[in-house]
Amino acid sequence: MGRYLPILIAVMLAIYAITDMAQTDSVKVNFMPKWMWFALIVLVPFAGAIAWLVWGRRNAGGGGRGGDPRDSAPDNDPEFLRRL
């Protein structure tokens, strides 16, 4: 079982990265088009998936700073507060 563990981890990591890449909007993808990221993830198992997770996405978990203004709380939106 131990000798199959790295293969299992590589497959699971690739599945996660491909799923995350497929759900990411094309405008939020860095450096390459999505099809090239897909090829990198599939052809270079560990490095491709890790590269996608580190560099492939824009605004990945920015903590609410600098992202989409619709992602903030309603009490931070002056337009919403004016309508109250």
TrEMBL record:
Which cellular component appears as one GO term in the record? plasma membrane
Provide the Cardiolipin synthase N-terminal domain boundaries. Answer: 13-57
* Bilayer topology annotation: Multi-pass membrane protein
Question: Could you tell me which InterPro entries the record lists for this protein?
Answer: CLS_N
Residue spans of biased composition, Basic and acidic residues class: 67-84
Keyword Cell membrane in record: yes
Asked if Metal-binding is a keyword of the record, the answer is no
Residue ranges for the region (Disordered) are 61-84
Q: What is its main location?
A: membrane
Location in or out of the cell: Cell membrane
Keyword annotations of the record: Cell membrane, Membrane, Transmembrane, Transmembrane helix
TM ranges: 35-55
Q: Which residues form a coiled coil?
A: none
One short Pfam name that applies is PLDc_N
Q: What is this protein's record name?
A: Phospholipase_D-nuclease N-terminal
The organism encoding this protein is Raineyella antarctica
